Amino acid sequence: MQVTILGSGTNLHPTRAAAGYLIQTDLPIVLDFGPRTLSNLLKTGLDRHTIQYLLFTHYHADHFSDFLTFFFDAICHSMFSDVRPALTIFGPPGTKRLFRTMLRTFPNFKDAPFRVTLKEVHDQPFAIGQTQITPLPMTHSDQQVCLGYRVEYQGRSAAFSGDAMVSPNLVSLCQDADLAILDCSFSSHAPGGSHMHAEDCGKVAKKAKIKKLILSHFYETADRSNVVAQARRHFSGPIIKGKDLLTLKVGRASQMD
User: For the whole model, what pTM was predicted?
Assistant: First the structure.
């Protein structure tokens, strides 16, 4: 399994795209599609028109807005070239209502020449090809369900918190994972609000006994502090500060830039 960080920031971070990850198992999967992640997806060299599966943690704009450009581009490609394969979108409760509204409302969206399947998930595992996906609700927003995902393939596991605060579900999601990419929105010197700070990430990593911790989803303030050192106060295992287009081989000692 290989994971590429498409975006390690949030909102209008000056040097980072917002949230997004490319997961490559037997099939390519995009998890979240925040602003500027589509441009980074093009840089990976993967043909975007071969992507058939999207996972969304929730629908704050910094996790979602590049879907609009991706989908419109897919329609244009299918009109003037070969029709792309069907697209399946997984997300929390509310996914069907949101996407059906967009497909009815946005010009050209309702005329997509390829099939779009919408699937709402909550806490029951499901499979994409040979890849096992386990969603769990995270603690983040009172307005919507926010999911974290655990992805397992050929005996390897990667956990993605999405936006989250420390919770029993987050620890369960990350338990003994080979790799965990956690919401490190702030340094330990800033109030976390509805997100974690660096020391929170270290505490979760220690309690869940993960193999490798990746910090991601940085606000600008987090980049002004040594978040790795702060997380290391609680977790002695490998810690990497995420960056856009960092590629990680899950379950191996090495990473690829």
Answer: 0.94
Task: Give the three-state DSSP class for 21.
Answer: strand
Strand partners, 91: 120
> What total number of domains does the chain contain?
1
Whole-angstrom distance, CA of residue 230 vs CA of residue 167? 19
Q: What are phi and psi of 172, to 5 degrees?
A: -60, -40
Q: What distance in Å separates the CA atoms of residue 39 and residue 114, rounded to the nearest whole number? A: 23
State how far the alpha carbon of 63 is from the alpha carbons of 7, 56, 88, 109, 203, in Å: 9, 8, 17, 20, 25
**Paired tokens of 169:** 């579900």
CATH number for the domain that contains residue 194: 3.60.15.10
16-71 pLDDT, tens digit each: 999 999 999 999 999 999 999 999 999 999 999 999 999 999 999 999 999 999 99
Amino acid making up residue 103: L
CA-based max dimension of the chain: 55
SS3 state at 204: helix
- Domain limits at 22? 2-256
Cβ-contact 217, 185 below 8 angstroms: yes
Q: E strands of the chain, at which residues? A: 2-7, 20-24, 28-33, 53-55, 87-91, 116-120, 126-128, 131-138, 146-153, 156-160, 179-183, 213-216, 239-241, 247-249, 255-256
Question: Nearest 5°: phi and psi at 57?
Answer: -80, -40
| Amino acid 180: pLDDT | 98
